[in-house]
């Protein structure tokens, strides 16, 4: 769902479930340093809440949450839990340690008690690797960490992950994941260490570099200068020199191949095939 500026500010003051995989350094999208900068630095966040891509994504998310709810009814009955009301876009806040929160795509209430009993997490991906078949508990490690954190904060025993995979064809899969308290406690310990060891004292983590996307969002003062280490500067100069030399070497190799191709489109040798168009 699109978020307001107030919600965006509150996310900066707390560790969210989507931050957890990055803090654990198992996210394919973000690093611990990305989370650090997002919590401590004023980033130029564009407001995309009214964009077509966001609106389409939110509509798809609603459908996936509904699908997850429908697929969870019978398995949860097997656990003696009768599903009641489905609640969308619910925020839950942690009660101990560092500030924690989770913005849930969906949450289901127990029909009998009215208490939360199930988290629903919607995912879309074009990379089906690490996703098992429907009914299994095989989901990517970063998704597992996220839903375990969600379940622990909400205090429920199960999460239904509703995933739309789209590598060659669209396929809906669902995964009922049980809560693992030991894993949740371990995650919370790491999150607390990150918050109190890096975010609160404003100490940048050294275990990773931020992504270029996050660095590009930092609001910079025009003309402002700061000292940087000579080592970083020398590394940059050497890398640029190697890149220039590699580019020149590649161009020479391509010219040599094209020369040997003469008037042909394809060149063949014992080690491979090259074409004129590739050069």
* Strand/helix succession: HEHHHEEEHEEHHHEE
Structural class: alpha/beta
Taking pLDDT < 50 over at least 5 consecutive residues as the criterion, the unreliable ranges are: none
Gap from first CA to last CA: 45 Å
Oligomer: single chain
Mean of the pLDDT scores? 88
- DSSP strand count: 8
Radius of gyration: 24 Å
| Distinct helical segment count | 8
Short description:
The protein has helices spanning 5-12, 20-23, 32-40, 52-78, 141-154, 181-199, 212-216, 230-261; strands spanning 15-16, 83-93, 100-110, 116-125, 158-165, 171-178, 266-269, 272-275.
Task: Please tell me about this protein's structure.
- It is a single chain.
- The chain is flat.
- The strands form 2 sheets. Strands 1, 2, 3, 4, 5 and 6 form a 6-stranded mixed sheet that branches. Strands 7-8 form a two-stranded antiparallel sheet.
- It has helices at 5-12, 20-23, 32-40, 52-78, 141-154, 181-199, 212-216, 230-261; strands at 15-16, 83-93, 100-110, 116-125, 158-165, 171-178, 266-269, 272-275.
- α5 (141-154) links the parallel β4 (116-125) and β5 (158-165).
- It is α/β, with parallel strands linked by helices and 279 residues long.
- It contains 8 helices and 8 strands; from the N terminus they run αβαααβββαββαααββ.
């Amino acid at each position: 769902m699109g978020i307001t500026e107030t919600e965006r500010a509150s996310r900066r003051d707390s560790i969210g479930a989507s931050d957890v995989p990055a803090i654990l350094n198992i996210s394919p999208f973000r690093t611990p340093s990305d989370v650090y900068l997002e919590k401590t630095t004023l980033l130029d966040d564009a407001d995309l809440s009214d964009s077509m891509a966001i609106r389409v994504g939110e509509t798809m998310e609603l459908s996936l949450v509904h699908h997850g709810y429908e697929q969870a009814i019978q398995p949860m009955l097997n656990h003696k839990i009768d599903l009641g009301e489905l609640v969308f876009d619910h925020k839950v806040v942690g009660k101990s340690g560092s500030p924690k929160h989770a913005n849930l795509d969906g949450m289901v209430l127990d029909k009998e008690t009215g208490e939360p009993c199930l988290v629903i997490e919607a995912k879309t991906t074009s990379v089906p690797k690490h996703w098992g078949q429907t009914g299994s508990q095989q989901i990517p490690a970063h998704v597992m960490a996220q839903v375990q954190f969600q379940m622990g904060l909400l205090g429920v025993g199960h999460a239904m992950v509703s995933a739309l995979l789209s590598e060659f064809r669209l396929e809906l899969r669902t995964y009922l994941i049980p809560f693992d308290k030991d894993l949740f406690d371990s995650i919370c310990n790491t999150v607390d260490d990150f918050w109190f060891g890096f975010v609160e004292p404003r100490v940048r983590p050294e275990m990773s570099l931020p992504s270029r996307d996050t660095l590009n969002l930092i609001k910079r003062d025009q003309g402002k200068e700061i000292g940087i280490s000579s080592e970083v500067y020398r590394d940059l100069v050497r890398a640029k020199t190697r890149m220039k030399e590699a580019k020149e070497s590649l161009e020479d190799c391509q010219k040599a191949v094209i020369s040997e191709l003469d008037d042909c489109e394809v060149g063949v040798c014992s080690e491979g095939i090259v074409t004129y168009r590739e050069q």
